[in-house]
Amino acid sequence: MQASQKILLLGSGELGKEVVIEAQRLGLETVAVDRYEGAPAMQVAHRSYVIDMLDKQALREVVEREKPDLIVPEIEAIATSELLKLEEEGYRVIPTARAARLTMDREGIRRLAAETLGLPTAAYRFADTYEQFAEAAKEMGFPCVVKPLMSSSGKGQSVCRSEAELERCWTIAMEGGRVQQTRVIVEEFITFESEITLLTVRSVSGTAFCSPIGHVQKDGDYVESWQPHEMTADQLAEAQRIAKAITDELGGAGLFGVELFLAKDKVYFSEVSPRPHDTGLVTLVSQNLSEFALHVRAILGYPIPEIENVAPGASRPLKAGSELDDYRIGGVGEALSVPHTQVRVFGKPVARPGRRMAVALSTGGSVAEARERATRALGFLNVRTSRPDVRP
Ligand SMILES: Nc1ncnc2c1ncn2[C@@H]1O[C@H](COP(=O)(O)OP(=O)(O)OP(=O)(O)O)[C@@H](O)[C@H]1O
Ligand SMILES: NCC(=O)N[C@@H]1O[C@H](COP(=O)([O-])[O-])[C@@H](O)[C@H]1O
Ligand SMILES: [Mg+2]
User: Fold this and answer.
1) From 279, 286, 341, 363, the catalytic residue
2) Which atom of ligand 2 is nearest the CA belonging to 278?
3) Annotated binding-site residue? 326
4) Residue of 22, 76, 165, 278 marked active site
């Protein structure tokens, strides 16, 4: 069979793996790229490359060699200035090279949302040195949230509760960023009642919203998500207004994860991923089309006549507790004994403390039941060494 089109995925984690599977279901040729060998999406793609995706030359070489119809970013940390050039030369970047550029670091997207579009966000300051940072934190007041400009899944992020914690928070930010740079964002701490991801799809069928996904984050990384999340009609309308404004501005086709905080009488924009979102893993069981299927349909220019929340669903990621280069996931059989439950094992080559290795996915008659099942299933799962000499 001759593939209809070729996609080049930049980043090959658990989210990309599902994108590759959906792309292959529609007859595409898939090429996966990441910074290490054996990444989850590489295990299912037709071909793969290991490069430093922040290296412009290395990125260009892979693109020119493969000549993909679609370049699909899967993580933020990519040489997006090169993507802008490649787009000018005629390559198609999803959703657009500008969207990838603006969401690569927190400053681009925050300034666009707050200053250009006037969307409600936490107050913020940027700082390049420790002195500027200390000044910015005092201006924001305590507690405030400190994040490296370029990082994800909470890496390098901390809540600074008093002046005495300034040095500790600065050190965390300096050590946690994805790339070597000192610029940080200091944000007003928002006391929200809940937070959601509003998956928003731009396709030939127009802009569509999935039911809101509620989630809980710990140390800046998600530990539980569910769909639908209960919110008032006014909150939903405001969330959709914000999501429409930001995704219209970013443009292009594809699925976006719009992160919002729901406070007592205000909805705040937090950030947006121009790609499937980790909290959206729940859609693998809760929707007729998962966020990955929606992304692929949208970027191929296929219609999306309807998105249905087929059952209340929940997801609980399994995180590794320690560094293991030889590991296996235990408890899968027990987890699958929980009704209406599935498990996805990502197949990452090595475990590291806090690294997401698998996810438990459940549906139920209610969100409460789905959450209880996913939590029970997660309780069975573990990441353990597979070395025979240390096996219990
Ligand atoms: N200003 C804030 N006030 C209160 N809580 C915050 C604030 N900013 C972030 N958080 C909390 O930290 C979480 C992670 O923040 P954020 O989404 O900015 O980090 P991230 O590293 O980009 O995460 P990811 O890449 O997983 O989306 C948020 O979902 C929220 O729970
Ligand atoms: N919040 C962003 C997110 O969830 N991204 C997902 O995690 C992978 C990196 O995982 P790793 O750090 O374990 O390699 C990324 O490739 C993507 O699939
Ligand atoms: Mg986030």
Assistant:
1) 279
2) 4
3) no
4) 278
- Phi/psi for 358 (5° steps) reads -165, 175
Residue 307's pLDDT is 98
Residue 4 carries which side chain, given as an amino acid letter? S
| Whole-angstrom distance, CA of residue 253 vs CA of residue 275 | 10
Cα–Cα dist 58/51, whole Å = 6
pLDDT of res. 390: 61
Q: Which residue has the tokens 């995180």?
A: 319
Q: How far apart are CA 282 and CA 292, in angstroms?
A: 11
Tell me: cis bond preceding 148? Omega within 30 of 0 counts. Answer: no
pLDDT along the chain (392 residues), means of 10: 91 98 98 98 98 98 98 96 98 98 95 98 97 97 96 92 97 81 94 98 98 96 98 98 98 98 97 98 98 98 98 98 96 98 98 98 98 99 84 52
- Model pLDDT, residue 3: 76
306 carries a ligand binding annotation: no
Residues in the chain: 392
With a 6 Å cutoff on the Cβ, whether 5 touches ligand 2 is: no
The residue written with tokens 């990502």 in the block is 346
Task: Provide the ipTM.
Answer: 0.98
Q: How far is the CA of 217 from the centre of ligand 3 (A)?
A: 9
- Taking the CA of residue 34 as reference, the ligand 2 atom at the shortest distance is 16
Residue 278 catalytic? yes
Q: Measure 104 CA to ligand 1 centroid, in angstroms.
A: 15
DSSP 187-230: EEPP--SEEEEEEEEEETTEEEEPPPEEEEEETTEEEEEEESPP
- What is the DSSP track for 3-34? -S-EEEEE--SHHHHHHHHHHHHTT-EEEEEE
Going by DSSP bridges, is the β-strand pair 6-10/29-34 parallel, antiparallel, or unpaired? parallel
Of 98, 110, 297, 356, the active-site residue reads 356
Q: Nearest Cα to 51, choosing from 37, 69, 41, 66?
A: 37
pLDDT number for residue 140 = 96
